[in-house]
């Protein structure tokens, strides 16, 4: 059964990654950690994309996660990762719950632009805040991991990343097979019918928004631990745009796609920066255009049957 | 006998347009009511208000004793009033079975499960049973977007029937369906529905359908009910003839 | 009291260029049902073009021709870019799924952001000469740059021009018809595709002109396009998508909100703007002048 295959596949991947730790060179473990962390944010984008919502501002929570961890570590002297994880989840869920009450009422371009706007608001606030290092950001100190003080931070972060990503990916997979997850597609296709069948599309979308935000925030936390640093760039629109780009390339079909896509993207980006330092956005834009124009089926998961406006459910 | 659904002075306007003007009507359990009227007379507005999609400008709606005027469609569905749509509201990229499964799982409870899989055997069985009642099992795995109109209508109604509602409101079930197929379709629907003992209200333009299946006819004109009686009486009412049916009734020739 | 005057003038000033940008954005949306995420890039292109022209012209001379050249350059740039995008890309993709259209304009945004970097580099432009050339006005202890009043004047002229064009000319009324119901317009024989082209070009020009007019007062650097689209979006949402009158109302509201915040508590300016927007949306989801959606089922 497909369910078992994914469980098997994910567990296998986890085992391989853990084993790889022993043989991978330093740069590879770092790349894997960052790819997995960023892959979580892509997963968050995908979760919402399945419901037809494109989030151009997922970087907001990526940044919230990173900064929560960094602030607790640097400014409040927290040195235990377990506390950071709990705090990140709590803070991001709270922010998402509040913003979600507004955002869950909007769709299409409204939703897309609002998410971008909120992300840029955070960017603006952080850039103006000299206490938080303005555009330079600031660093995190070393951490203990559930009581264990590791010899090398990167080893511990690597293990933590692999485990957390594994658990989240697994949970996501079961979620997508459940009624709540499956309803995403239904909402995307016909909200009014979903309402008439007994569920509240708005509440479900609010839920998805919060879930996606927490996942993205955990990604931000892991990214902060891996690099030891956070900066406002995490909330900048180009960062969010890259997450969307990877989400589209990977598709919304399988839980592994965001992570594989993120890894490939990291490889390509590292090399491309050597050739296109000032035109990376343009390259992304052109590729996106090519996909839209020549491979509409490449966006199969996003495209509706007809181009006409779909009916909206009444509020709530 | 207490009416199962009752409206009192239901009104609705859109700016200067009066879509519903003081609609007061009572529907009894197990009744089959045909609603007729020209386009724009207020029939679908009525259904939209009863099911909570549209807020009335004035008036009340009761389900038994309970005031349901302010309920949302999903709450109205939960208490046992379901509807089908003039233009079938389906999930075009899913298969017929998946459409039904969504309906089945949504009827389980207000808050869907986040963990247990959607496609359980129990749900698949329930969905297939409804498909069977509506005689569309052959289309089980067909993507809904590719279906012909008649089958789409059946899927639309099947989805509304999944929760075994006490009241079923059908909005133009035979519109877009060929003359040859419409009676067969309505026979299927009525068999499935009366098996569940539901009250059925159907909006129809086709007078033959109304004559054949309705116990009672409500005629709408300009947002008001201008007739409420047995089909024989209502369809021959002079106002109904003038505003709805037409002065001469042409009977379809029985085919070979 | 003086703060109030400062807020008034600043508010009108913000509102002026916001109105020009938002009018273009809302017109394009109203006619083509596309919210052009790359519209902010038009602002940026207009700003860069005019800043560059200003830098070139005002180093030697200092006459009023400079302003005309700046404006002309922006109009030309807007017309050119608008034409290229509409003819070269958009017209092949009308009617596609809303999500696809969002990604499409986003792709254009990505491309244009880097195109501006390629043409004008990454260092900021300070084209201050046009700003200082017009002198200052003293009101008590406050000084206002006359240029800022000029911006308000330009916006007023453009606003009047738009109003007259839409409501008093035959073409304009046809455009309003297309905004109201494109399908019906086609059925009535209106060449809707031609209006799409016209609207997109005019909208782009408006965006560019807004940028051109603002450039002397700001530092023109990469990233202003996105900052502007975020603000313009708030404006059109408050005003109601597709309504130029709404763009005016929204621009005034956002302009004054921003001016108030900047003078009293600068850190929260974006919060205030989006707070106001959220309030409006809660009370009136379609915006102040937006039309409620017709029945869908």
Describe this structure in words.
Helix content of chain A is 71%, strand content 1%. Chain A has 316 residues and is an all-alpha fold. A two-stranded antiparallel ribbon of chain A has the order 1-2. In chain A, helix 2 runs parallel beside helix 6 and helix 3 packs antiparallel against helix 4. Mean pLDDT of chain A is 88; it is low at 300-316. By secondary structure, chain B is of the alpha/beta class. Chain B contains nine helices and ten strands. Chain B has helices at residues 43-50, 73-79, 96-106, 121-133, 149-161, 179-195, 207-213, 231-236, 238-245; strands at residues 5-14, 17-27, 32-37, 58-63, 66-67, 81-83, 167-171, 199-203, 216-221, 224-229. Chain B has a six-stranded mixed β-sheet with strand order 6-7-8-3-9-10, sandwiched between helices. A four-stranded antiparallel β-sheet of chain B has the order 2-1-4-5, with helices on one face. Chain B starts with a strand and ends in an 11-residue tail after the last helix. With 297 residues, chain C is mainly α. Chain C contains twelve helices and two strands, in the order H-H-H-H-H-E-E-H-H-H-H-H-H-H. Chain C has helices at 2-32, 39-57, 65-88, 98-120, 129-133, 146-168, 170-180, 182-187, 192-214, 224-239, 244-264, 269-283, and strands spanning 136-139, 142-145. In chain C, helix 1 (2-32) packs across helix 10. Chains in contact: A-B, A-C, B-C.
Topology diagram in text:
The complex is a heterotrimer of chains A (316), B (256) and C (297).
Chain A: H1 2-23, H2 26-49, H3 59-75, H4 81-103, H5 108-128, E1 138-139, H6 153-177, H7 179-189, H8 191-196, H9 201-227, E2 229-230, H10 237-250, H11 257-275, H12 280-294
Antiparallel strand pairs in A: 1-2
Chain B: E1 5-14, E2 17-27, E3 32-37, H1 43-50, E4 58-63, E5 66-67, H2 73-79, E6 81-83, H3 96-106, H4 121-133, H5 149-161, E7 167-171, H6 179-195, E8 199-203, H7 207-213, E9 216-221, E10 224-229, H8 231-236, H9 238-245
Parallel strand pairs in B: 3-8, 3-9, 6-7, 7-8
Antiparallel strand pairs in B: 1-2, 1-4, 4-5, 9-10
Chain C: H1 2-32, H2 39-57, H3 65-88, H4 98-120, H5 129-133, E1 136-139, E2 142-145, H6 146-168, H7 170-180, H8 182-187, H9 192-214, H10 224-239, H11 244-264, H12 269-283
């Amino acid at each position: 059964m497909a369910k078992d295959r994914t469980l098997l596949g994910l567990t296998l991947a986890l085992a391989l990654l853990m084993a790889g730790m022993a043989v991978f060179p330093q740069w590879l473990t770092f790349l894997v950690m960052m790819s997995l962390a960023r892959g979580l944010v892509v997963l968050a984008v995908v979760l919402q994309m399945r419901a037809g919502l494109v989030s151009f501002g997922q970087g907001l929570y990526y940044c919230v996660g990173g900064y929560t961890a960094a602030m607790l570590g640097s400014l409040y002297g927290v040195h235990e990762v377990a506390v950071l994880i709990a705090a990140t989840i709590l803070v991001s869920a709270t922010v998402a719950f509040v913003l979600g009450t507004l955002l869950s009422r909007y769709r299409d371009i409204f939703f897309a632009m609002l998410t971008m706007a909120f992300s840029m608001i955070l960017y603006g606030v952080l850039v103006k805040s000299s206490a938080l290092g303005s555009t330079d950001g600031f660093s995190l100190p070393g951490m203990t991991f559930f009581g264990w003080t590791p010899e090398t931070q990167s080893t511990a972060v690597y293990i933590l990343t692999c485990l957390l990503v594994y658990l989240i990916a697994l949970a996501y997979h079961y979620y997508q097979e459940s009624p709540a997850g499956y309803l995403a597609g239904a909402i995307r296709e016909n909200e009014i019918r979903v309402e008439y069948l007994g569920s509240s599309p708005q509440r479900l979308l609010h839920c998805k928004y919060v879930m996606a935000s927490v996942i993205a925030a955990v990604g931000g936390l892991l990214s902060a631990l891996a690099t030891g640093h956070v900066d406002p760039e995490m909330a900048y629109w180009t960062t969010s745009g890259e997450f969307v780009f990877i989400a589209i390339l990977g598709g919304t079909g399988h839980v592994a796609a965001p992570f594989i896509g993120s890894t490939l993207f990291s490889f390509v980006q590292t090399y491309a920066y050597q050739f296109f330092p000032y035109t990376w956005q343009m390259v992304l834009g052109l590729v996106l255009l090519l996909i839209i124009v020549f491979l509409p089926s490449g966006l199969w998961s996003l495209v509706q049957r007809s181009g006409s406006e779909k009916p909206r459910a009444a509020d709530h | 006998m207490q009416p199962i659904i009752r409206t009192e002075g239901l009104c609705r306007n859109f700016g200067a347009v009066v879509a519903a003007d003081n609609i007061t009507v009572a529907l009894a359990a197990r009744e089959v009511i045909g609603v007729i009227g020209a386009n724009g007379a207020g029939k679908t507005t009525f259904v939209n208000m009863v099911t909570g999609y549209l807020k009335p400008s004035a008036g009340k709606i009761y389900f038994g004793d309970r005031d349901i005027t302010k309920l949302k469609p999903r709450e109205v569905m939960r208490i046992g009033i379901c509807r089908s749509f003039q233009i079938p509201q389906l999930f075009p990229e899913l298969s017929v079975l998946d459409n039904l499964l969504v309906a089945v799982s949504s009827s389980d409870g207000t808050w869907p499960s986040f963990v247990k899989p959607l496609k359980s055997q129990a749900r698949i069985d329930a969905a297939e049973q409804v498909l069977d009642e509506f005689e569309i099992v052959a289309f089980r795995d067909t993507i809904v977007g590719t279906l012909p109109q008649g089958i789409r209508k059946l899927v639309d109604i099947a989805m509304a029937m999944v929760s075994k509602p006490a009241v079923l409101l059908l909005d133009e079930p035979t519109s877009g369906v060929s003359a040859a197929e419409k009676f067969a379709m309505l026979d299927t629907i009525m068999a499935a529905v009366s098996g569940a003992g539901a009250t059925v209200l159907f909006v129809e333009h086709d007078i033959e359908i109304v004559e054949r299946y309705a116990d009672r006819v409500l005629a709408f004109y300009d947002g008001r009910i201008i007739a409420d009686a047995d089909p024989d009486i209502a369809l021959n009412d002079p106002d109904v003839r003038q505003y709805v049916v037409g002065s001469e009734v042409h009977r379809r020739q029985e085919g070979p | 009291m003086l703060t109030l005057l400062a807020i008034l003038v600043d508010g009108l000033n913000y509102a002026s260029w916001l109105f020009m940008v938002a009018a273009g954005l809302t017109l394009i949306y109203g006619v083509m049902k596309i919210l052009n995420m790359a519209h902010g890039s038009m602002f940026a292109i207009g700003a860069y073009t005019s800043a560059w022209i200003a830098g070139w012209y005002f180093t030697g001379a200092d006459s009023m021709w400079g302003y005309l050249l700046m404006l002309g350059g922006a109009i030309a740039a807007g017309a050119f870019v608008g034409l290229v995008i509409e003819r070269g890309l958009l017209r092949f993709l009308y009617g596609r799924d809303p999500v696809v259209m969002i990604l499409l304009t986003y792709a254009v945004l990505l491309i244009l952001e880097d195109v501006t970097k390629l043409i004008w580099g990454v260092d900021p432009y300070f084209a201050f000469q046009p700003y200082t050339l017009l002198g200052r006005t003293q009101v008590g202890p406050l000084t206002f740059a006359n240029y800022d009043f000029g911006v308000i004047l330009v916006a007023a002229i453009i606003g009047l021009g738009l109003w007259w064009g839409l409501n008093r000319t035959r073409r304009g009324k046809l455009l309003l018809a297309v905004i109201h119901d494109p399908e019906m317009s086609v059925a009535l024989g209106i060449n809707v595709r031609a209006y799409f082209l016209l609207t997109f070009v005019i909208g782009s020009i408006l965006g560019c002109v807004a940028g051109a007019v603002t450039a002397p007062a700001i530092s023109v650097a990469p990233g202003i396009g996105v900052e502007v689209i975020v603000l313009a979006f708030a404006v059109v949402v408050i005003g109601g998508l597709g309504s130029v009158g709404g763009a005016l109302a929204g621009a005034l509201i956002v302009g004054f909100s921003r001016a108030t915040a900047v003078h009293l508590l600068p850190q929260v300016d974006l919060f205030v703007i989006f707070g106001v927007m959220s309030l409006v949306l809660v009370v009136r989801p379609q915006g102040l002048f937006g039309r409620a959606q017709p029945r869908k089922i």
